[in-house]
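> forwarded from #structure-qc
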């Protein structure tokens, strides 16, 4: 997770361990954890408003399963994703 997110979470954190054990107890696998980290990193890594949520409490918490089932490649569009000058010219 640290490598993917560019952060430095401690392996010894009790809260992180509790979250991971809870998800394992629900039957989730290492591959599931990797997928959630990959998906949410792709979504949130470059967005300052969302990047702060790339943390164990968020990724491995109560929404873990919904993150796991997210479709790949879904990205929130922002104004920067559109060339509005080109759009006005075409209209």
């Amino acid at each position: 997770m640290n490598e993917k997110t560019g952060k430095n979470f401690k392996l010894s954190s009790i809260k992180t361990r509790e979250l991971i054990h809870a998800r394992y107890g629900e039957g989730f696998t290492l591959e599931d954890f990797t997928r959630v980290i990959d998906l949410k990193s792709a979504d949130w890594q470059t967005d300052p408003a969302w990047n702060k949520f790339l943390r164990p409490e968020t990724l491995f918490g109560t929404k873990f399963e919904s993150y796991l089932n997210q479709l790949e490649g879904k990205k929130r569009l922002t104004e920067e994703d559109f060339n509005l000058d080109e759009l006005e010219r075409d209209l």
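QC bot note: DSSP finds seven helices and no strands in the chain. Residues 2-72 form one domain.
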